[in-house]
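Quick one, C-alpha cells below. Sequence please?
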C-alpha cells in the first residue's frame, strides 16, 4: 500500500504563494493520474488539479475552474513526488490539501493545511 505524505502548507496573506509537495512511499504506475484535492471546513473534499503520468510536464495538467491560471501541478516520477505551485492565493483557497491518484486508490494522508488571510 502506497503511503502519501503532504507538506508545504502554511499561513499566507492573500496574493501570496505556496508550493505543496506530496511524497509517495513507493513508485506508482506511470500511467496513474495523480491529483490534488482539498477540503474546506464544513465542505466536501473537492478536486483541485490532476496530471497524467507519461509526460513530466507542467503543461499536462487539468484544473478546477476555481484555480485555473493560478495553480500549477507537476510531478517528478523519479522522485515519487507530486507538487502544487499555488500563486495569487485567495481566502477561499483555505483548506486542507491532499494528494492521491485520480480516481483515488490509496488511503488518504494527513493532508497539509493552507490558510489564506485577507
Amino acid at each position: 500500500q502506497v503511503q502519501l505524505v503532504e507538506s508545504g502548507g502554511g499561513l499566507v496573506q492573500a496574493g501570496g504563494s505556496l508550493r505543496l509537495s506530496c511524497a509517495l512511499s513507493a513508485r506508482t504506475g506511470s500511467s496513474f493520474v495523480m491529483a490534488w484535492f482539498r477540503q474546506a471546513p464544513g465542505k466536501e473534499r473537492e478536486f483541485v488539479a490532476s496530471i497524467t503520468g507519461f509526460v513530466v510536464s507542467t503543461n499536462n495538467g487539468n484544473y478546477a475552474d476555481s484555480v485555473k491560471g493560478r495553480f500549477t501541478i507537476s510531478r517528478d516520477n523519479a522522485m515519487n513526488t507530486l507538487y502544487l505551485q499555488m500563486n495569487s492565493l485567495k481566502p477561499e483557497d483555505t483548506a486542507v490539501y491532499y494528494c492521491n491518484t485520480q480516481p483515488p486508490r490509496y488511503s488518504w494522508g494527513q493532508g497539509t493545511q493552507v490558510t489564506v488571510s485577507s
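The beta strands are 4-7, 10-13, 18-24, 34-39, 46-51, 61-63, 71-76, 81-86, 95-101, 112-117. The chain has no helices and ten strands.
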